[in-house]
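> call design_seq(struct)
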């Protein structure tokens, strides 16, 4: 086995792990703060990629502007859905929220399959991120390095905002005792809406990052959603740090399995999930309720 192949799979694992981390982080935020299992997260990932593609295809707007506009558009769509539909199931059993968001996922995906079919749409790299660097032991494509760095910045930036800032404290307090928080003059429903928008915006941002690597496809959200749910279960539902660390770690593990045992690469994350559930049902970073 060559070092080039080994490090190449490590890079691939880090890239996939970056997407797992961003998507599962959004899921963890929404579940931890809103107690909703958002099965539509894969659709928002796909929407981020498609909005970036449409901005370029129809308006000539390039990658860097889409990097801001597409997640913002996804956040707005998510907040509209939260205000009109998802808010109605907050006080019901978790199963209602899961079924509602699963239905939204199927509707959004079905609309794009109807409009664009299931063939992928190409989306080019930005010029400044083309090419790569020869590190001696491997060739590092510039765009793939950017994906990993950008994902880490946004993931840990989100963790810091929720855990270490006043806004994050308000969000956590609003989920635990909304009546008390309202007494301080804070608009709790707006905070909840913003939290949901932020969670789905992370999925949209992951979609923009993924668009030049994987072709923009209406089925791309469904292909990654089951893996992301496994990542969240391993890390612990509602655990912000668990989503980030577990997403990256399982992505790397999946990449290495393609080198040492390719036949198991598609199931290694689910095997880890089963083992974790047997040992620690709440997840590695989760809390027993």
């Amino acid at each position: 086995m060559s070092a080039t192949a080994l490090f190449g799979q490590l890079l691939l694992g880090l890239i996939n792990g970056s997407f797992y981390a961003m998507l599962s982080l959004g899921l963890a935020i929404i579940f931890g703060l809103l107690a909703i299992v958002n099965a539509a997260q894969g659709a928002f990932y796909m929407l981020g990629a498609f909005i970036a593609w449409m901005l370029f295809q129809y308006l000539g707007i390039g990658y860097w502007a889409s990097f801001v506009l597409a997640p913002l558009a996804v956040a707005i769509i998510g907040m509209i859905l939260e205000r009109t539909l998802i808010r109605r199931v907050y006080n019901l059993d978790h199963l209602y929220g899961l079924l509602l968001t699963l239905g939204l996922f199927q509707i959004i995906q079905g609309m794009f399959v109807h409009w664009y079919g299931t063939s992928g749409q190409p989306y080019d790299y930005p010029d400044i991120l083309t090419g790569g660097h020869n590190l001696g032991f491997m060739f590092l494509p510039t765009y793939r390095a950017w994906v990993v760095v950008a994902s880490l910045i946004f993931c840990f930036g989100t963790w810091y905002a929720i855990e270490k800032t006043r806004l994050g404290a308000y969000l956590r307090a609003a989920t635990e005792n909304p009546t008390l928080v309202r007494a301080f003059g804070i608009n709790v429903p707006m905070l909840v809406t913003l939290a949901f928008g932020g969670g789905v915006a992370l999925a949209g941002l992951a979609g923009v990052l993924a668009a030049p690597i994987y072709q923009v496809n209406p089925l791309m959200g469904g292909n990654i959603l089951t893996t992301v749910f496994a990542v969240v279960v391993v890390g612990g539902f509602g655990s912000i740090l668990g989503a980030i660390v577990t997403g990256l770690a399982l992505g790397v593990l999946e990449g290495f399995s393609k080198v040492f045992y390719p036949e198991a690469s598609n199931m290694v994350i689910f095997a880890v999930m089963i083992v974790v559930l047997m040992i620690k049902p709440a997840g590695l970073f989760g809390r027993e309720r």
